[in-house]
Amino acid sequence: MQTFLDTFERLYGRSEANRFGFTVPEFCEMLAAVMCQSLSDQAAEEFLRNLRLDDLVLARACARGNEEAWAVFVATYREKLYRAARAIAPVESVACELADSVYADLFGTRVDKDGRRISKLESYLGRGSLEGWLRMVLAQEYVNRFRAERRFVGFVEAIDCRPHGEDAAPENARLASATDAALAALSSEERFLLAAYYLDGRTLAEMGRMLCVHESTISRRLEKIIAALRKKILRKLCEAGIGRRDAEEMLDADVRDLNIDIRDRLTQERQA
Hints:
The protein is mainly alpha-helical. It contains 14 helices and two strands, in the order ααααααββαααααααα. The chain has helices spanning 5-14, 24-38, 44-50, 53-63, 67-88, 92-107, 130-145, 154-159, 170-184, 188-199, 204-211, 215-239, 244-250, 262-266; strands spanning 110-111, 117-118.
C-alpha cells in the first residue's frame, strides 16, 4: 500500500474529508482498509478510479459521529430512505418501521468495548452510490425480517438435516469447506441476491423493484455470481489436492449431502 500513499493524499485534497474531521493519516488508513476489502474483485488502480469518494467519506464521517456529516446525510438521504422503504414494503406502517430500523442501524445504537458507536455505514465500501447501497440494505432487511413467513426451497430444509462430524464423508467435508469459504467471501449484495432468489423464492421482477433495476439486470448479476462461485469452489478444491476432473464431479453432488450452513452464509449479518 506504500506506493498508493501519494494517490491517497491527492484524493484527500479532492474530497471533503477535512470538512468532516479526517486527518490525512486517518483518511489514508480508511482508504487502505477499504481497498483491502475490495481488491478481490478489481485491480487497485481501477478501484480508485471508480471509487465514490464523496459518498465514502460522508458515510465514514457519519460512522465516526461527525455532526456536520450527519446533517448532510439527513438532508440528502433521510427522505430518500423512507421513499425507498415505501417502494419495498406494501403497507405504510411496515415501510416506516423498516426505514426507522435501518436508520437506527446506520446511526448506531450500540457501542464497542472502547465506547465507540457501531454504525452500519462502516460496511459501505464506495463501490457504488451510497443511495443505491441504502436501497440494497433496506431490501435485505425487509427480506430478513419476514424470512420466517416465507417459503424456503426444499434443499434448505434438507441442509438443516445434514450429517455432521464423523458422519460426513471426507469428500463431502472438503467440498463443504470449499463451498463455505466461497460463500463467506461474497459481498453483502451478493448474499442478498442469492438469499432472496434461492431461499425466499423471490421473482426477478420483485427483486428488481426492490433495488430499482430491471429484472434482466438481476438475472445477469445472479448468473455472474453463480459462475464466480463455481470457479472459486473449483480453485479451492484443486488447492486441497483434488484433480480438476474429480473436483468438477464433486460439484455435481446432491446438496443435501453436504455439510454447508447455507442459511447462515446467505443471511445478512445483523447487529444484535
